[in-house]
Amino acid sequence: MSRKDILGVSATVPAAPSPHDPQLAKSRTMPLLGVARKDRDPATKLTANIGNALREQNDRVERAEEIERRLAEGQAVIDLDTNVIDPSFMQDRMPGDIDGLLASIKEQGQQVPILVRPHPQQSGRYEVAFGHRRLRAVTELGLAVKAVVRDLTDEQLVVAQGQENNERQDLSFIEKARFAARLKERFPRDVIISSMSVDKGDLSKMLSIIEALPADLIDAIGPAPGIGLRSWQELADLIEKASSADNVLERVLSSEFQALQSADRFKALIAHLKPRRLERGLPEVMASPAGERLAQVKQSKAKVEIMIDRKATPDFAAFVLEQLPTLYEAHRAKQKQKKEA
């Protein structure tokens, strides 16, 4: 008996279905594994609050785990050497922190198996459909990974990968947009829509943002969790107006920016690129590299006004007042040096 038979995996890889097959078109409108979404009461949308959002997030995690449990039904969960497993041919994640996952697996073990398929080109190796973070964590811990092995076509793999990511909602917007752009290179739009559960309009916006932003800049910013479509579109518009994209990239790669978390890096770049409004006599907002509001500055020919919100930053306001005499003395000393030079 072959190794595949022992694992309960068919030795015959199914032929890729025709994109014109009506049965396939019907299946694309439903989750790959037939896991029904939980309907939401329309009234909930009008009265959504933080509690509802948290419950919805938990529901999504539960549905993602249900997908994985269904995959395991009737299939053997086996231990695989991580050295024989390759990532999906379609990358969906940017490098990120897995400390929480590492701690969880170290304490409780790997609770949910990953999904892999026999590698289509290399005998004896496997390719991940989903579970990349779990694979990375167990690899760092020096453990074997628990996995379900299934024969999947390329299309079935990316649909499973996309649907699992969509249910968990742990990919940031820009990671999803990049995933969509990579899918576009190999698959028709209906496959992308099925995989990512997005409509044509949102898909077009994702792709346009990826086309507008240099790949190196996206890499330098990172996944920027919590930063959505509108903010990325704003960045794309600002980059288009910038005198040089290279200067912007140099700014983001600076040690000052790279010391920030990814989302803060994004906010700091937006603050850096936004045009100043002094010429219209409107207050200029001064921000820290992390994008925190420090003060409003209003300049005219006659005076400069610096306004600090004492309620928001009382300690900073007191510090500025305390340092003003010192700053003035430093200014006078500098002016004196210029005159003597």
Task: Explain this structure.
This protein is of the alpha/beta class and 341 residues long. Among the domains are: 127 residues, Conserved hypothetical protein from pyrococcus furiosus pfu- 392566-001, ParB domain, CATH 3.90.1530; 33 residues. A 5-stranded mixed β-sheet has the order 1-5-3-4-2. Strand 7 and strand 8 form a beta hairpin. Helix 4 packs antiparallel against helix 7, helix 5 crosses helix 6 and helix 7 packs parallel to helix 9. The chain is elongated, with a radius of gyration of 26 Å. It starts with a helix and ends with a helix. The N terminus is likely disordered. This is Plasmid partitioning protein RepB.
What topology does this entry show?
Layout: H1 3-6, H2 22-27, H3 42-46, H4 50-72, E1 77-80, E2 85-86, H5 99-108, E3 114-118, E4 126-130, H6 132-141, E5 145-149, H7 154-168, H8 173-184, H9 189-196, H10 200-212, H11 215-221, H12 229-241, H13 245-252, H14 255-258, H15 262-273, E6 284-287, E7 293-299, E8 304-307, H16 314-340
Parallel strand pairs: 2-4, 3-5
Antiparallel strand pairs: 1-5, 3-4, 6-7, 7-8
- Overall average residue pLDDT: 75
Shape: elongated
Q: Report the CATH topology name of one domain.
A: Conserved hypothetical protein from pyrococcus furiosus pfu- 392566-001, ParB domain
- Total number of strands: 8
Helicity level: 40-55%
- Measured by DSSP, the beta-strand proportion falls in 5-15%
Structural class given helices, strands, pairing? alpha/beta
Major β-sheet profile? 5 strands, mixed
Number of helices: 16
